[in-house]
Every structure is written in C-alpha cells, then in structure tokens.
Write a structure and sequence with these properties.
Number of domains: 2
Strand content: 15-25%
CATH class of the largest domain: Alpha Beta
Bound molecules: beta-D-galactofuranose
C-alpha cells in the first residue's frame, strides 16, 4: 500500500476517533459531521493517487486541458489528484515529480514543457516503481521511462495549415504571387512548436514564391504574441501571412496589427492562421480577425481516466495515443459548429 493510501487509512481512523470522542461531549455542531464526511471522501483509502505536473496556465488551451483532467480524475471517479502548476518552468516540474515520488503516488501524469532534460527525474520515478503517463507534449527519453503518451499530431497540424494556405491563395488567384510570411512560434523546443513549425515548413518548401521572413518565439502567450508582432511590423512592411502557433498569440497579433493601423482576417491585408481552435478563436474568426484555426484537442481527461483504469486492472495500453482533431475557418458555419464543442 503506498504512502498516501497508508496516510489516508490513518487519517480516516483518526477522524473516526475524533467523531466518537465528540459523542460524549455536548452535541457536536452539524458542520463537524460534514467536515468529517468531506475528510473521509477525500482520504478514502481506495482512491488512486495521481500526481499531475502541468506546464502552466499560459493559454486558453492549457486551461481547457487542466479542466478536462481535473474533471475526470475526481474522488467520485476513484482518484485523489495532486495538481501542480509549473508556471512554465521545467525546474518546477522536476520539483513536483520528486514530491510526487516522496508522497508515493500511484501514477505521475506529466505534460513536459520542453522535450529534453527528463531522463534523470523520470528514471527516479521508474526506480520508485511509479508509472509515468505523458500528456500533451512529448519527452525525448527512452520508451521504458513512460507508460504511454496522449496528445496531438503536431506535424500533421502544421501540414494542414500549409495545405489550407495553398488552397486559400489558389482560390484568390494568388498561387504565383510572392507571399511574405512570419511565424509566431510557441515555447521553443516544446513538441507543439517543433511539430507545427516542421509541418508547415514542409509545405512552405514546396512553394518557391512563399518567403518566410522570420520565425520568432512568443511563448504561447497573448502578451508576448502582441509584443513580437509589434516588433515584426516595425521590421517588415510587406507581411502577407502570420502563422501563429496558438490562438492566444494570434489574439495578440490581431491587437498589434490593428493598433498599427493595419487590417487582418478574411477581409484584411494580413491572413492569420492559428492553432488550438479554442472558443475565443471562434469569436475571433466570427469577428473577421483571423482566417482559420487548426484544432488541437485538449480534452485528455476521459482518455487518461480510461488508461489508468486499464492499468489498474492489469491491462496494457498503446504507447502512443493521438487525439481526434480537425480545423475551422471563416467559410464554415461557425455559430452552428461551436454548439457541439466543449472548449
Ligand atoms: C498543444 C499545447 C500548446 C497549445 C498552446 O498541445 O502543448 O501549449 O497549442 C499551449 O496553447 O500553451
């Protein structure tokens, strides 16, 4: 029995003693009983203890991802979740994982902020006999250091964006025009940045008339996206397309372009392609500010719950588990499409 389960056992016994001791005293107030019930629910011995090290809270996508996992790994579903927000710092993730190991959790769930640097700490988890499940982003480690990975095919997302741009320009009769492109990159060396840059780059390489003026890190945040776009607008006066590797940076880019007196979106001078397809991206497309958003499904919670359930019952799971995803653009009935979306 792991440390947390032992502690829960002790806590429950202590709580029961407390309750019995109270029986002899004056009638205890109702709140004690509800506090005890709450205590027992949270410390129920049969809960599966999961330590979850999340990248941060940098974007709408991240918030949806966190919410999905927290909603799935609940005490009602048999889980005791310990959530740690790394505030986009890898060293905070190292600390969180080591704390989870000390607490002897049953599973560690990790969204690695970048792909490198994980060998030592994941070896420590393996040595402690704690399975690691990677979600969202990948870690470049030997396969025996994690049980499985759930996430998106980022290269495919990037290619899909390039192919969308091909068709868009063709529809406008601009397939032979010189097209000047800038890219707002996500956190450098994160799987989403690496994959989207690579995937779009493969399509870019097929078009001699497409010119990538510059790619710059804007760390997946709206503030940084606006700051970087302001700088790019000052440096280049002929930008035709912005590839923004997530929606929040795209929202920042829209602000920068509009504040500089420019125009963007389907009726503007600058075409904006984005990634994630969060709810606010639907707002931006419907407002005519961005042209398209390539979905990256954050709803990992149910799949994670299912995977841990399989492992708990002695089953095995596929090493790589891709999420379903598509894309949305301003030619679609976005009002209708967004009705069936959970984020
Ligand atoms: C993608 C995820 C990225 C999102 C960003 O799976 O890693 O990180 O695209 C988020 O919004 O910050």
């Amino acid at each position: 029995m792991n440390h947390i389960r032992r502690m829960r056992g002790l806590a429950v016994s202590f709580g029961v003693l407390l309750l019995l001791a109270g029986c002899g005293a004056k009638k205890t107030e109702e709140p004690e009983a509800s506090a005890q019930q709450q205590f027992e629910t949270e410390m129920n011995e049969n809960l599966i203890a999961v330590g979850f090290s999340q990248v941060g809270a940098e974007s709408d996508w991240r918030a949806a991802n966190t919410e999905s996992i927290q909603s799935a790994l609940t005490p009602e579903n048999g889980f005791y979740l310990i959530y740690e927000d790394a505030q986009q710092k890898q060293e905070n993730q190292f600390k969180a994982i080591r704390n989870f190991i000390l607490q002897e959790v049953d599973y560690i769930v990790l969204s690695p902020i970048v792909e490198n640097g994980w060998d030592t700490v994941l070896q420590e988890a393996k040595d402690a006999g704690i399975p690691v499940i990677l979600v969202d982003r990948k870690a470049q480690v030997p396969e025996d250091l994690y049980t499985c990975w759930i996430g998106a095919d980022f290269e495919s997302e990037g290619r899909r964006a390039g192919e969308w741009l091909e068709q868009y320009l063709e529809d406008q009769g601009r397939e032979d025009e010189e097209i000047n492109i800038v890219t707002l990159q996500g956190t450098l060396d994160s799987s989403a940045q690496l994959g989207r840059t690579k995937g779009f780059g493969e399509v870019l390489a097929e078009h001699d008339n497409w010119k990538m003026l510059e790619m710059r890190d804007a760390d997946f945040t709206q503030a940084k996206g606006q700051e970087v776009m302001e700088s790019l607008l000052q440096k280049y006066d002929d930008i035709d397309v912005v590839v923004s590797e997530n929606d929040n940076m795209a929202f920042g880019a829209v602000d920068a372009i509009q504040e500089a007196g420019g125009s963007c979106g389907p009726d503007g001078d600058i075409t904006i392609l984005s990634f994630d397809a969060v709810s606010a991206a639907f707002d931006a497309m419907m407002a005519g500010e961005i042209n398209a958003s390539f979905e990256c499904n954050p709803l990992h919670g149910p799949k994670l719950q299912e995977i841990i359930g399989t492992l708990e019952s002695g089953g095995t799971v596929d090493k790589i588990q891709y999420m379903e995803e598509t894309y949305f653009d301003t030619d679609m009935d976005l009002e209708e499409l967004r009705k069936s979306r959970a984020y």
